[in-house]
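Subject: Interface between my chains keeps coming out wrong

I've been trying for a while to get a sensible model of this assembly. When I model each chain on its own everything looks fine, but I need the whole thing in one frame so I can look at the contacts. Pasting all components below, labels as-is. Any help appreciated, I'm running out of ideas.
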Amino acid sequence: MTRQDHATRIEKLLAAMMLGEKIGQLNMLTADLAVTGPGMPADYMAELKKGRLGSMLNLYGVPLMRQVQRVAVEETRLGIPLFFGYDVVHGHRTVFPIPLAEAGAFDPELWEKTARIAAIEAAAEGLTLTFAPMIDVARDPRWGRIAESAGEDTWLTCRLAEAKVKGFQGKNLAAQDAIAATAKHLAGYGAVMAGREYAQVELSERAFHEIYLPPFRAAVAAGAAAIMPAFTDLAGVPLTAHVGILRDTVRARWGFDGVMISDYNAIAELMAHGIAGDLAEAAALALKAGVDVDMMATAYTRGLPVALERGLVAMSDIDACVRRVLALKAALGLFDDPYRAQAPVMTAERWTEHRAVARDAARRSIVLLVNRNDRLPIASPPARVALLGPLGDIAPEMLGPWSGAGRGEEMVSYAAGLRAAWPQSRIDAARGVEVEGEARSGIKPALDLARAADLVVLALGELRWMSGEAGSRAKPGLPGLQNEFARAVLDLGRPVVVLLSSGRPLMVPWLFERAEAVLACWYLGSEAGHAVADVVTGRWNPSARLPVTWPVEVGQIPIFYSRLPTGRPIDPTFRYSSKYIDMPNEPMFAFGHGLSYTRFAYSNLRAAPAQLREKDTLAVEVDVANEGRAAGEETVLLFVRDPVASVSRPVLELKGMAKVFLAPGERRSVRLSLACDAFAILDAKLAPRLEPGALEIYVGPAARAEALLKTSVKLVA
Ligand code: NOJ
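Reply #2:
Try treating it as a single job with all components included. I did that and got this:
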């Protein structure tokens, strides 16, 4: 069917619809499999039969989906099919690393591949839309949702946004293995004050446009079918009702004609925000801003008829939303084939293939934070291993927050992974302490095991519910008695490798100073244990990097690499310079930090042309040599800085990345290209422009001045 045919069909339907049916198309209810807000306000089957339901969330599985869809198609007056949305965030049944972890792979091809697989599995269970990718730039480890994000960098988040949209949606939304992507949460949610969930956001307009908004533009340009406005506000206006952003910017300026889906109950929450006096006002505000689908507030079904009567909205406003919802259904092919998932597509080989990708994604996401005395890798199997700590043998925790359709018992725990890698070794697991609580009785037996072991693997961290939505922590360190336990283990002087599981950087500076080896394992999903074993044994040389600055202490937050210069840069000898008197300015680990089992050296940075004009592309080249003894993959990062502009520019901004795989002793030149508009800045009126003058180019592994090579070019008018 052509677009024109779709349009004709939609207009015909619209003409036949009664008001209740129109509003019904804008109503989304949960089937209650997973709930992230106030409970079920209405019985969805009853609503559906009355034509008062247009889409559902949290329902999947072919038999159930077919049953509900059949009612929509056969028992409602107009027979309009439903679409089914779910939070397929980092995999569906096969679970991939959480987004923050996967972002650390710095690998768009991988990001797209894992989204593609998630879409195949989700679509096979009848789903037609995912509430992903989450592309909120996140710079505050107190905020639990940093786990769902690509971290602190705007450029990196843009690349992830594009890759995920492409992966979920495939080439054609109507294909049986495609699902619609929802770019969320537009925008600025990551800046909630003090990292407290759902709190106020205080941002400059510049920060909003420069840092938080671009990933959404990238998602729209990549064809994202849907957008979810954030729960939060911007200068007092909740995004759910933000005409300036939703309608004027995203729809009018960017040309987004897809569907806007409110967050869970967010339309009703406009009353709690204090900008709507009742549900009718709330419904009118959201509708006027262009929010098409009301998730779980029933503000549209209950409030819009009243709003119409009061003249707060016009029928044409409602029609515009209905058209977009029907257009999405048409694009998904639902009018032609409402049951899209018919033939079983998930063969045994397919599952195996998906697990293999999960293992690869997981090992590519593990960051080697510390490796003193080359403690890792452990090439020959130790005779006795003590696997200690509360997270060593607890498969379901590997799911992380937002587990899709993942099943805890199908995850590979660290214990299972190490046992598979070292079948001859004796591996004793003991928790020692729990993640939470004050029980000490397990400490002594665990220490006894440690004493007798040739290697101690210490698995510490947070439980998966402690990050993700509503997982803000004011003290993002190791909960419970884990510090005490870890100290006691390290005091024994045995060789210790720490596996840190978390949805955020954890502030445990003492541990990083004392432990010989620490791996950031985040939540790695289905193949967690195998991936960790691959890294520990050296079968995989770690290549992941931190997509977020890792603070020493909570008091440094917000801390991120792309900061503006100060008029008084830090000078340890001068009191009146920008610094703390009780703590260094430097983080524990910089953005881009991540060790390897080999050593890469950078040299000979060059950039051409030296005089850059508007239509030019800058070619940047650097030589990278593997000076160590292991083969490995290096991620080369390219940063820029505009040292003198009409507005102060960040000290570094990521603008490019490349991968190079090198055998020991091998050297290669790596080429990155940069279109001139990478240097465009927003001027004082927030209009993009190129300003002539010198531009600095930095290349290296991480956002640390001493790790970067520098050259410069000149932008000429
Ligand atoms: C609330 C979350 O903010 C959003 O990200 C999610 O998609 C919805 N709940 C639906 O589960």
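Reply #3:
Confirming on my end. The mean pLDDT is 96.
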